[in-house]
Amino acid sequence: MTISRRSLLKAGLAGLAASTVAGCNNGAASRGDGEVIYWLWDSAQLPMYTECANLFHEQNPQYSVKIEQYGWNDYWSKLVTGFISDTAPDVFTGHSSKYPLFADKGLVLPIDDYVAKDNVDLSIYQKGLADRWIGADGKRYGLPKDWDTEVYFYNSALTDAAGISAEQLNSMTWNPQDGGTFEKIVQRLTVDSKGRRGDQPGFDKDNVKVYGLGYADAGGGDGQTSWSWYAATNGWKYSEGEPWGTKFFYGDPKFTETIGWWRSLITKGYMPTYAQAKSGVDVTTSFGAGKYGMTPNGSWMLGTYAGLKQVKTKLARLPIGPIGKRMSMMNGLADTIWAGTTRREASWAWVKFLGSQTAQDIVAKAGVVFPAVAASMPAAKAAFAKSGWDVTPFLEPVEAGDVFPYPANPNAADVTAVMTPAMDAVMSFEAEPSSLIKANNDVNKILSASD
Questions:
Q1: Per CATH, is 3-147+334-388 categorized as 3.40.190.10?
Q2: Which end of the chain is less enclosed by CB atoms within 10 A, N or C?
Q3: What's the CA gap between 365 and 376, in Å, rounded?
Q4: Which family does the similarity line name (predicted)?
């Protein structure tokens, strides 16, 4: 999607917002006032939310829930279409990168009055999660449902063969000058077509059989599963006013040197070229085929990695950076009410239920994601342990408070439209990291123009 198309979309949503809220008709007048249409995108979560819906109906016979699940890309395009055609779902799963625009255009319902009326205890959630759903206008737009952080998934057969211990993997350090012990481990895990490792004489960086480090993409403007923790532990932050970016810092030397170091792993042969990474075979499939020693990813991917039966996968902490500690992005989802619904009371009842420990215990026991309610976490840890996962590396940054938020602002689509091609060009060696200074200026012009 180009910048002009995104701008047209935003203009359409701006005009749509008033009519949607004023019309208050989701095109389902024949449906009972107590039936809530609920959307989510993760098929792995459909069974547990179906269980939640059944229990909700048992406890609230006057209400029922119809769940519809769509894949990530279809989900958002259908949602926008629903806003425009007055057929959006009553309640839907929201994301930090999406809801700011919806809130800005009046398409999602503030729930402050409901929260106050029903005395909802916001302290039950993991620290910081409830605040993520307070918009730039100071209003609350959702109750947390789950959260995530990042770690390295590694192929233990490959690390064993390289003589790399779990202790070494879990005490990695990095810096943008020589990469620290992290780069040495990535170097050691890399093997060329003749079986020579990256730290052995004669290593052929142009004919690599196993890369020490895999990655999915260039990270765009958030770098959630690619570069975010390197930059954060180098003392960089996304913007002023985090998480509500008012002025971004993609041109900061701490950021450009971080990206320059990360890209150098391609030059050295320890990480695939951008063309290889984006060849059509996703990062987890390549990892499962034994092509990567380790890959960074989020906790929502535990189920996918568990399904890679041909490799034995374990988890390792993110590396300690120049600031002297580990840092992970902490993001989370929430359930949001469409502002145009005619079933506000039923929708709120469902959102409140989903945000309760009763519902999140069901989510926890499924062992798919980490529930937002802190008291539900022991059940989640037990469920993941039963599946063979020690999820401690995901939890430690949260417990230590060493986390940072996903960058949010109502202009996220336009920021993405600038930063995605800019980062793609850098990782493709079509541009230097210094080119991000111009990209950053373009981003900040967008923000200043929208004020």
A1: yes
A2: C
A3: 9
A4: Belongs to the bacterial solute-binding protein 1 family.
pLDDT, residue 242, reads 76
Phi, psi dihedrals of residue 87, rounded to the nearest 5°? -125, 25
The DSSP secondary structure of 23-49, one letter per residue, reads H---S-TTS-TTEEEEEE--GGGHHHH
Tens of pLDDT along 402-449? Answer: 999 999 888 888 999 999 999 999 999 999 999 999 999 999 999 888
Q: Which tokens is 219 given?
A: 């990270």
For residue 170, give both structure tokens: 């879990």
How, if at all, do strands 91-94 and 35-40 pair? parallel
**Global confidence as pTM:** 0.90
Q: From residue 129, how far is each of 331, 342, 417 by CA, in Å? A: 8, 28, 27
Contacts of 350 (CB under 8 A, 6+ apart): 36, 38, 56, 63, 65, 90, 91, 335
Which CATH number among 3.40.50.720, 3.20.20.30, 1.10.10.410, 3.40.190.10 corresponds to the domain 150-330+409-450? 3.40.190.10
| Residues found in the chain | 451
